[in-house]
Amino acid sequence: MSFSSQDALQGQRANRVPDVTLDFWLIKLMAVTMGETAADYLAVNMGLGLTATSLLMATILVVALVAQFAQKRYVPWAYWLAVVLISIVGTLVTDNLTDNFGVPLTTSTLLFSGLLLATFGFWYASERTLSIHAVFTMRREVFYWLAILFTFALGTAAGDLVAEHFELGYLTTGLIFAGVIAVIALA
Asked: pTM of the prediction?
């Protein structure tokens, strides 16, 4: 994707997110796994329950995002802490909709798909770019983190939908999603 004229004028500003490399995707995969595992561990194994875990992790996420937004460039510890926490909270949002409010996984999958598309639409309408190579303003970073939150919530909803509703199990579902991602990456 090419940079807009605004990007060119402000090109001397440092990007506040990492370059998308193989390392990025490997760390992102570990963060996703950590989010799913940590949300379940805290709520079930630690006995905090879904509501208390959600409130606790949302509070910690807000603190981490404040730290991330305070950075003027990409700072690995702040960025990846926010990613892990937003992964946990994204999972918890979907789990709350399903378990506490009875929202079907088909509905939450469609809801988060719509919210993600709307985020991209508003991002592009206001910035004339969706480039993650030029996240150097507060507004762009807000769109970036909203997209990540909705992506994690969507991943949980769609993954659970395929694994549970269609009874394919988590291993088969994981392999299906890995295959789809691989096809897109190769294209």
From this structure: 0.86
